[in-house]
Amino acid sequence: MSLFPDDCVGLVTPQRQAFSEPLLLSCGRSLAPYELVYETYGTLNASASNAVLICHALSGHHHAAGYHHEDERKPGWWDACIGPGKAIDTNRFFVVSLNNLGGCHGSTGPSSIDPSTGKAYGASFPVVTVEDWVHSQARLADLLGIQQWASVVGGSLGGMQALQWAISYPERLRHCVAIATAPKLSAQNIAFNEVARQAIVTDPDFHNGDYAAFGVIPKRGLTLARMVGHITYLSDDAMGKKFGRDLRSEQLNYDLTSVEFEVESYLRYQGQEFSGRFDANTYLLMTKALDYFDPAAAHQDDLARTLAGVQADVMLMSFTTDWRFSPARSRELVDALLAAGKQVSYLEIDAPQGHDAFLLPIPRYIEAFSGYMNRIEVDA
Question: In which pathway does it act (predicted)?
Answer without folding.
Answer: Amino-acid biosynthesis; L-methionine biosynthesis via de novo pathway; O-succinyl-L-homoserine from L-homoserine: step 1/1
